[in-house]
Amino acid sequence: MVHKRIRKFNTKDTYPEQKLNNDLCQAVVTEGGKTVWLRGQCPQNLDDGVNIESSDPAEQTHKVMQNIKQLIEEAGGSMSHLVKIVVYITDIKNREAIYRVIGQYVKDVYPVSTGLVVERLARPEWLVEIDATAVIPK
Length: 138
Fold this sequence. Notes:
Elements: E1 4-10, H1 11-14, E2 23-29, E3 34-37, H2 57-74, E4 82-89, H3 95-105, E5 112-117, E6 128-136
Parallel strand pairs: 4-5
Antiparallel strand pairs: 1-2, 3-6, 4-6
């Protein structure tokens, strides 16, 4: 692993009732390299800013995570360089669906993660927004 991940855990142990499978950790230590700060990614196309045509929280989250992956790769990195995500959701009922999708993208990565339930996002049709930070080693 590129970065030191402290106190790794999986959400299937911490939230067994929610049937999640996210590899996370309590802290990530990086040394040197290039930090990539991503703005909050929403369920829209990076090239034209058009929203995807879905009100499904899982589909929206796939688009958000695909955007994060694409941007990290455009910066010269990979998802293994992801160190932190902050997840904003508008309805707690969508949490499991959203985090199941996130789990597919962070398998064996172990970023730190903060999750918040917010009243609304910038557009009423958005159910999830995720900002992310990656550190690409030298």
